[in-house]
Structures are given as C-alpha cells and as structure tokens.
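Q: Start with the shorter request: fold the first protein.
A: Done. Sequence, then structure:
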Amino acid sequence: MIQFYTFIAHLPCIVGTSPTNQYQLDEMTISMANNTSRSSNNKQSIDNLKTSGFDRRLSIAKTSLNIGRRWAGNSMSGMFLNKEARTARNQIFMEEQAHYLAEELGKLKGSVVKIGQMLAIYGEHILPPEITRALQTLNDDTATLAWPKIEQNLRQLLGNKLHELQVDPVPIGTASLAQVHRATVIATGEQVVLKIQYPGVADAINSDLALFKSLLKVSNIVPQTRSLDAWFEEIRDLLHHEVDYEAEAATTERFYDRLLDDARYIVPKINRTYSTKRLLCMSYEPGISVVSDALQLLPLERRNAIGQAAIEIMIQEIFVWGEMQTDPNFGNYLVRVARDESEIDKLVLLDFGAIRQFDNNLLTIAHNLLRAGYYHDHQSMMSAMTGYDFFDTMSDKVRSDIASLFLLATEPFSDPVMNTDMPANCLDEQQRYIWANSKLHTRLSNHATQAMQSFEFNLPPKEFMFISRKFIGAYTFLTVLDARTDSNNLVKPFL
C-alpha cells in the first residue's frame, strides 16, 4: 500500500514526469545519450569478467558485510542522540551507504548492474529516495571487455563464420549486458554491427537476483516486502527476455516490417547469418545523438517533425500494435539529418530488447484515458478509471483527485479548443503545444502538493508504470529538442 501523494508523485500516466526525480532522470538520460557518440578508445579495458557464481557471490558478500558493519556502528554511535539528531544522522548515513552500494555494483558487469538500473527506473515507489538516487548513477558506459576475450566469445558463437567478418576490435558501445562492435561482411562489403553478449551473463541472472536481494536484506537498506518480491520477479522476467537475442531479432524484424514504408523511421535490418541467441547482427545505421547540439541548429519546423515522429510512434506502439519498447534511454535513438531538401530527417530506432506487450483490457483503458484527456472531460476521465483493483477500490474523492491529475498529465494531447485550462504560453499561433514552455513537471508537482492526502490504495499496475516511464523519455526529448506538436494530428487517428 502507498499513500495518495506518493502515487501522484510517481504515476503521471499517459505522459508527464516524476516531479521528484525529473532532474536526476534528465541528467541520466542526457549523459547516456552523449555517451553513445563517444569513442571507446579511451575507456579502461578489463581482461576478464567475474562471471562465475563464486566470484560474484564473493564480491557482493563483501559489500553486504561492509554495509552491515557500518550500519551496526552507526546505530551504536547514535544511541545517545535525541530523535531529531538521530534522524538527521541516519539520513546522511543512508546517502553514504547508498552511494557505496552503487559504486560496488558498478564494478560488476552483467545483470547486477542492470538490476540496479531497473530498480532505479521502476522501483522508486518501494525504495528509499536515497537508494534510487544512488542507483541512477549506475552507468552502462563503463570499462570495455578486452578484445581477446570478445574475439574468443565470437569464435564460440560463430565458429568458422567469424572468418567471413572483419570486426573492428574497438567497441562503439558498451553496456551492462553486451558490447557493440562494427564489422564488415567481407564478401559483400555490407556494414554491420555486432551486439555481443558478455559470456556467462544469461546464466547468472537468477543467482545475481538472489544475491542482490540478499544484499539489500543483509545491509538493512531496504525493508523486505511483498512489493519488493513482486518487483524482483518482474525484473527477472524482463532480464531473461532481454538476454534472448533471438526474441529481440524477431521483435526488430516486426518493427522493421511495420515501419518499412514510413520514411520518418529507420529500423536496423537483422542479419540472421551471423545472429544467435547471444549474438545479434544488424545493419549499421549512422546518426547523431538526440541531444546533439546539431539538432538545436535545425529550423523549428524540422525539429517539430522529428518531435512529432518521436511521440507518434509511441502512441502507435500502444494503440495500434499493443507492444512497446519501454526503455526511455536516449541512447536507444539516433537522428539521421537530411543532407538536402529532397530528403527528410529520420529517427533511427536501435534497441528492441525491452519490449512489453499489453492485453486488450489495458489497451481499452488506455484508449478511454486518452480520449478523456483529448476532450479534457473530468467525468469521462473518472469513468475511464476502471478495470483494475487499483482503480476500483478508490473512494470518490481519490478518484476525482486522480482524474484531475490525469487531465493535467494528458495536457499535451488535449484539444486546445476543449482544454480551457491550458496556459496560454503553451500554445503557439498554430495551436501547437510548446514543450519547452509547458513546465509540465512543475505544475504536476504543485498539483500533487495541493492534493496531498493520507488515502491509501493498491500499488499501481506495472504496465502503467512502464507506459508512464516511456513517455517521460518522450517528454524529456521533446523539451530538449524544443519541439512543438499538433495534438489533433497526433491523437485523433487513435481515438
């Protein structure tokens, strides 16, 4: 159970942002995006990974022991302090231990780092804020695995087929689960990229999860609750899906086929010849980071077109295809800037590992919420909030307050004529929504503060959290891009 104000802070629904974590998220995603365009030549290289269960257990056990020892010492030394002083001391101590935890986790590649990242993104309603802030510092762009180990792994995955490729030993990207290298198919000259999963990562997921949960328990940082158990099970499913590159290849091919005739998007083409369950080969698709200064120099109309395409595809994912790429990381997108007026700027979609599929019940609810938001109808928004215990057990007062919040969160998708509550500076002369002027996260935060009450209800459905987080990324991108979007063109086709 969580309190009403906590829900408001963490579930802006169809679009919006978490007011308490907006700054941290923006910094994290922008940093990741910048990292995608940076060469890996200067990164520290490591010769081996701690992939054995014993090595990883030992590393995490040491971390647990150190945190536990420090926690005990802090408790003893604070025994003679008054309540206020002890609370302040514990706050500082929690911050220190959280950063120590993140630092130690960051030394291990594999699912441990990914678990920390997922908890930072999706688990802030069950974790102390000190923990989520520290976990948000976990960065994929860490030390590279040395080429001899990568080459050895490729030989095991491809056998003699490796001789058909000329692989650049310097990676163009690193992550917690994989490393990306450019390559050339010698016979054809085709430029491809190889997403090479680190050896042993998939086999270590279950043990890493158990170790991570044990770490949190032993260190006394996080209370052990059913909510935490549920989120660990969700993370387990997500990780097992994400390391299955055959599934990712199939998903990428679906999106490739769906968007083949839409000139606004580029999806890499999968090369099955050199793909396996732990290796993904796809066409090399160049572009610039979505937070590149070069995008800011484009004329407004071109930036608007890029922004419209970015948010439109997410609406299509929900309301047309029923499956969504849920990772808001800016590094999963590039922009291919047009060379002349005969071409258009294109959005390059890079990663289809973190895919969520939605059932008809949720899609129906989402449709109704979007429709109510478009017409800015409070009663319709309240009526749309049904179908989950989360909604159905609310009191009328809570339902009304949340409906008002949802109307504010869906402001960018509302009809400007119907939404008389929209601030004037959010619309230009063509009635397009000016994202950079909206200050939506601030207004959501203020609304939450005004509505704060002590009502309690069930944890929000995880699917709503995934959708919300994806649109947080879109909101941030559109704000950084300083784009303007047309709600009628965007929403009407999907009502």
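Q: Next, the second protein, separately.
A: Sequence, then structure:
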Amino acid sequence: MENRVVITGLGIWSSLGTSLGEVTESLREGRSGIGLDPERRELGYISALTGIVKRPELKGALDRRKRLCLPQQGEYAYMATAEAMRNAGMDEAFLAANEVGIIYGNDSSAAPVIEGIDIIRAKRNTAMVGSGNIFQSMNSTVTMNLSVIFNLRGVNLTLSAACASGSHAIGMGYLMIRQGLQERVVCGGAQEVNLYSVGSFDGLGAFSKRESDPAAASRPFDKDRDGLVPSGGAATVILESYDSAVRRGAAILGEVAGYGFSSNGEHISVPNVDGPRRSLLRCLADAGMQPEEIPYVNAHATSTPLGDYNEALAIDEVRREQALRRLDQVDDRPRNVDGGSQRNRLLDADDGARIHRPEHQFRAGRRSHLEAQHPRPQGGPRLRPLSVKLVRIRRNQLDPHYQEMQINPTQTMTQQELIEKINTVLADEFEVEQEVITPDAPLLETLDLDSLDLVDVVVLVDKNFGVTLTGPDFKELKTFQDFYDLIISRTNGN
C-alpha cells in the first residue's frame, strides 16, 4: 500500500523576506530583492547584480559550537527549517520522541574551502583554519548540521543536482514516505551567495548586465531578457504521511501528488527540450493528472535567451499533448526544437486517445477526498521564481585587509591590562561570565573546552595577541594563571 504524502510545514529565508509572511507580502507588492554588490565590481565581475540576503543573527539561538559549524547557506537553512518546524508543530519534545529524516539540496560550499586554503597558504599552519571549517566545507554540511541541531534520527542525505537540488530533495522525500521507508522528512534546498560560488558563471556571460535597473534585471521569458541574477537563501518543506499528519492533528498545507525526473543527456550546459518534457510527462503520469489540471508551473526560468526558449517549448509540448498514454508508451523520440512545422507535425501525430491507468482514477479519487477535507485557498498570489540576495561574506582572519588591520595590542599594555584582555576575549568567544575566570580556576573545565575548541584557542590567540601556539604548549596548561603566563612570556607585556 502506498502512503499519501502531505506538506505540514513551510519556511523560507530569501532576498524577498526572512519568513513566509514577509515573502508573501513582497510577492503581492511586487518587490524585488536584487541589488548591486560593489565587492563584485572590485573583484572584476562583469555584472555586480545579485540578490541581497540578510545574514541571520544566531548568537543566542544556537550555542557556539553549532554556530561555528554552519556555513552561510547552513545559516539560511537553519532559519528556514526552524520556521517550518514551528509551522508543522514539531517541537523539541516531538523530535526527541519521533524519528524524522532530512533530505536537503546543497550544490556547493565554496567559501569555507577557499578561505581555509588561503589561511593555510598565508600562515603555513593548518590549525589556524579553525575547528568549524571542515564541517562548513563539506557538501553534506546542511544535513549534518541540521540533524544535530534538531535531533533528526531518520534518513540523512544531501542531494547535489545543480539548480534542481531542492526539487529533487522534495521528490526523494516524497518517494521515501510513499513507500513507507520514512514517516516524516525535512526537505529543501540552500545556496550560498558569496563572491566565490558563481564567479565562473559571470565569466561565461550568463548574468544580466542590466545594472541601471536592478529591480528589473531578472526577466524570465521576456523578449529583452539578458541573463540570470545570482543569489541564494534557503527554503524548507516538511513532508509527512497523511496518516501521521491526521493522527497528530497537524494542519495540512498541501499534498505532493507526483514526481518526475530526467536528464538532458546532450550537453553539459546547453538546455534542450526533450529532457524537461520527459520529466513533466513522468510527473503527470505519477500524479494521474492532465496538463489542463495544473494552474501554475514554477519554471526554471533562468532569463537566458536559449534556456527560457527551450523550456517554454517543453512546457508547450506537454500542454498540447492532450492525450497522455501510459508512461511506458509515451513516445520519447527526440523532438525538433526549431519551433517549425516539423515539430508541430510530430505533436499532431502524437495526439490520440488517452489510455488511463486504473490507479490514476484511484489517486484522483483520493485527491478529491483530501481537497474536500482540506480545501485549497482561493485567490492566492501567483508566484514567480524567487531571486535571492547576497550578503557580505563572513571572513576569517585572512581578510584581504587583515594584515593592515592587525595590530599587536600587547606592545603597550601592562601585564594586568593584558590579563584583562585575555579574560574578555575568552569570555566572549566561549560564552561564559567573566566572573568565573579567575587565576586559579581550571582552564579546560571552566571554558568547557574539547579538542576542537583547543584548535579555536590557537586561532583566537594568534588573532588577538599575535602569538602562535602549538600542541605542546597546552600540555602544561592547568589554570588560567598558566595561560596568562604563557601569553605574557610570548609578548612584550612583561
């Protein structure tokens, strides 16, 4: 028996807003999240256009260790998922008592990789990278971090499929729940928006150059379109079996009725018509629906001349094929994509009587039953693909201006002033009250330091005091006084 799959939670963090309410309002009022990033111009970008995404403030929401392990897109994903969890009614107690999985799309984590390598090259010391970099730099960073933050103990899977990553994550979650392998799965997609992740696209001329009017730069399917606008953010969907949602009284926001997929298989970057056409046909067949039943199509809509053209042809071909056959009987022969009479003749030749699968009728009946219990809201906004924004990336101590900014504060400080500085730095970094930091207090226990934290101490001391510590330096450190003495001995503070 196949399970029905419903949506019980939604969350988003994007250039159009940092919540469902803000994004809905932006869409209704026609706001744009696109702006100009002067740093891109400084780096030689052809186009400085990008989405402007607000950076979340996570201090106070997450502890230090969890914050350190999150890259930019991971922060967005956390905020979107936290909102989706609240909407779904899944609190800490529920997550502790029930198995919930996560399948999330993440295509890259470029900034932590580049920043880590830059630090190693400059410092000639791998410890200076810091403890969080390894967890930020992995493509699985979103799922591994969110599973720890939210105590998720089900499937843990990262999907990397370029722009389709988030959609495939929802599709895979849908299949797992439908087949009974999971009851609840957190699904979604996140994208970093820093200067490193999409630089090569700019070099290929894929970005819009309409800098005089940033708000109107993204023009999918418009005759004057000239390219896409890079951005990022995150969106989360909580998928759940229908029976599970009903048992716990969750509000049902929608149902995933079908999923289809394909690969172009012709060119690594040039889009074609047959690939998206086949994915649409498979999705319709899986859902037991006809093209005329679909009121809205959320297209890829890259705003590139060829991309939009071929995608529009694919959608039109599916729309015009009024007689869908069984999926395994659908003619998958390559189509003529020039828009001429030959393509039209092929479409006309394919027209015929629809062959219904019995299960299609069954699913249509189940869908009608669901709609009767949970009617679809009327008059909602017509959505367009969201463009998301860029923030100034968080830099480690290897900021391009780091060497200029770094000064040794210990050169003119007394020993007492240096000790006070050490206490302030440690209290702020490890989030403890300064009152607990006393000369005789045990260093490791007071700050609750583990082996990962000791790596961060190395980075912290180098950044603030210009002192490079190594592993052997920590062997004799028992108290804060030992730590003071070590730093003082390596500076001019004495």
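Q: Describe the second briefly.
A: The chain has a mean pLDDT of 83. The two ends are 77 Å apart (CA to CA).
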